[in-house]
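Item description
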Amino acid sequence: MSDDWFDESPDPTYAPTPSLSVVSRHEQDDQDWFDTSPEPATPAPEASKPPVARLRRRPRRRPPLPVVIIGALTATGTIVVCAAMLMRPASPAPPNLADPTTTAATSSAVKPWCTEIGAGQPVSMTATEPGLAAIAAFEKAYYLDRDAVTARLHVAADARVGSVDQLKAGIDTVPAGTTHCVLATPVQPGMWSVELYTRRPDGTLEHFPQTITTIAAATAPKGALITAILPRGDN
């Protein structure tokens, strides 16, 4: 019997029954404390990246519709006005509104009024013949300027013409405003058949036929001087 107790040979029919190993929580904690294997690292949360600033294009402002319409109308109106100006015919020349008095004076300077009633060429101060220019200057000083001194400047000192006082007395007998007109026809060098016409303010027309002689004088205002004024009896 004792031999069987010491018999350590295994029983071929013996099968160990698995046993549950009960480990206390304390022992499990001790095992965890001695466990030197590193725990798997928990990945840190990814740091939040700052948002990337995105450039936003500012929308182009469009002018209000009324402004666009007004601008279009203005441009159209300008084009229409320019076209009208280009197509408009040239303005006619303004009518001649010259003063009738000035026009009459200009016409009379070209063609004196006495040419219609007398013979001879008109005598003016612009005549190229010094004798005719001297006669015209004398008659102007006598009738228009009514200046005896100026009239005598166109007369030779020894001429058969009145003095300054005599000329002045004759001027005083002529009504102010009397106009005159002179025609002349050459007779010979230095001698002229003159037709002198005067028209008084009341319309009275007078005719004085004369023979006037002249002489060249370089120092005279018109290059000649009157030497005689003789009435003719053919009026």
User: Anything to note?
Assistant: The chain has a mean pLDDT of 73. DSSP finds seven helices and six strands in the chain.
